[in-house]
Specification:
about 110 residues, alpha+beta, two-stranded antiparallel ribbon, 5 helices, about 15% strand
Length: about 110
């Protein structure tokens, strides 16, 4: 998401009414009505479903993936593979830019 992006999210009615203002350990939000109906048992007991709008404003602290890996903070192998593939692509682009600059210098 980028600044000003908005998306619909869903919470159970109890979380919305009571937990958001008073729950210091967080609340679970769901990406779809189907998902909350499937995974949140209290919804089946009648606590209700609330659709909210989540708006991205800013990173308060950006993730430090390098530190996360060093300090053993768990994050998925998929994330590690994505980061590694992006780093490889960045290296390829940097090499390509160097070749372009060298070719440009030869032409002058």
């Amino acid at each position: 998401m980028k600044v000003s992006d908005k998306t619909a999210v869903f919470l159970c009615g109890t979380d919305f009414i009571y937990e958001i203002p008073d729950n210091y350990h967080g609340n679970t939000i769901y990406y779809s009505e189907k998902s909350i109906r499937k995974f949140r048992e209290c919804v089946q007991s009648g606590c209700g479903i609330v659709e909210c709008e989540l708006t991205f404003k800013k990173w308060v602290e950006e993730p430090d993936y390098e530190r996360m890996g060093r300090e053993g903070i768990p994050f998925s192998r998929v994330n590690q593979e994505i980061i590694k593939s992006v780093e490889v692509e960045i290296e390829k682009l940097q090499e390509y830019l160097k070749r372009l600059e060298a070719d440009e210098a030869k032409e002058k």
